[in-house]
Amino acid sequence: MELGNTPNLPPDPSTYLQPVESALAAPIVFGNLEGTLTDASASKCAGDATNCYAFRTPPAFAQIFRQNGFTVLNSANNHSHDYGQAGVSDTSAALQAAGITQAGLPGQIGLVTDGSTKVAFVDFAPYTDVNNLLDLSTAKELITQARSEANVVVVYMHAGAEGSNADHVTGNEETYVGEDRGNAEVFAHDAIDAGAALVIASGPHVLRGSEFYHGHLIDYSLGDFANYNNFSTAGDLDLSGILTVTLRADGSYVGAHFTSLLLSATGQPMIDSSQAAATFVNQLSSADFGSAAAIIQPDGLINPPPDS
């Protein structure tokens, strides 16, 4: 999720997410911040403007995210360090000033509360400058630590290859542009085994299927939520969704709802009454997970399979 790339910003950033505002209503709202909130100018792409992408928006955009309901934003991805340490520091400061909890930097656990229930967000990506999902033993230790600090642990993973050909969970180690992007299925199962109540993801930039594992929901990619002119929306890249999950205070599953979104040509999310995204996700889930698939019902509800 990013609202442009300075100087290419939406004409009215404050209303950009208005079409999906109703679907974001929840006590805790999490999103993946695919970029930085900084005015720094020295990016990682110096001398490589063709094959390198660096994203930034003004620090004031943190307030826009907060006004649209976001309470937790992730920095465990391949764009959190696009503008070096200055960009990282500016982003953290902007999020803190806006009252948004950050998660995903090395050793960082994002703690929030819903009433008397503490919820920990532990976020991972296949890089050493964030919580590294390729280091499974350390990742499991961090999840265990989070479980000791909160009633409920939610794990986010920025895992897997990217693009319209990367919509299936392979069950194998995945690579992209020469990078090891991890084995999403192994990591997600290990996260649940270590104490996570829910695993969510968005790294592939395309929707992927969902499954239930030991009674817990795993969503392998929610695609792009908003990307003002930054990513292609061709083919199935224009399909996205908002996942709303309800858990008990002990982390056990109560229910979930999937809201289908359609991205405009400029990457603005709109609620899609045709439910094309839900249909696509169901096809992927059934193909990849069989009887363990998390099937989205016509009303958007997600019920666990009988044997989960």
General description of the model:
With 308 residues, this protein is an alpha/beta fold. It has one domain: Purple Acid Phosphatase, chain A, domain 2, CATH 3.60.21. 19% of the residues lie in helices and 25% in strands. The protein is built from five helices and 18 strands. Strands 14, 15, 16, 17 and 18 form a five-stranded antiparallel β-sheet that branches. The protein has a four-stranded mixed β-sheet with strand order 6-7-8-11, covered by helices on one side. A three-stranded parallel β-sheet has the order 1-4-5, with helices on one face. A hairpin with a 2-residue loop joins β6 (110-114) and β7. The chain is globular.
- Summed up, the domain count is 1
Helix content: 10-25%
Number of E strands: 18
Q: Can you tell me the CATH architecture?
A: 4-Layer Sandwich
Radius of gyration: 18 Å
User: Could you give the distance between the termini?
Assistant: 31 Å
- What's the average pLDDT? 94
What would the principal axes of the Cα set say about the shape? globular
Reported by name, the CATH topology is Purple Acid Phosphatase, chain A, domain 2
Oligomeric nature of the chains? single chain
Strand residues, percent:
15-25%
Biggest sheet statistics = 5 strands, antiparallel
* Computed structural class: alpha/beta
Write the layout of secondary structure elements.
Elements: E1 30-32, E2 36-37, E3 56-57, H1 61-67, E4 72-74, H2 84-98, E5 101-103, E6 110-114, E7 117-124, H3 136-149, E8 152-157, E9 175-176, E10 179-180, H4 184-193, E11 198-201, E12 210-213, E13 216-219, E14 239-247, E15 253-263, E16 269-271, H5 276-289, E17 295-296, E18 301-303
Parallel strand pairs: 1-4, 2-3, 4-5, 7-8, 8-11
Antiparallel strand pairs: 6-7, 9-10, 12-13, 14-15, 15-16, 15-18, 17-18
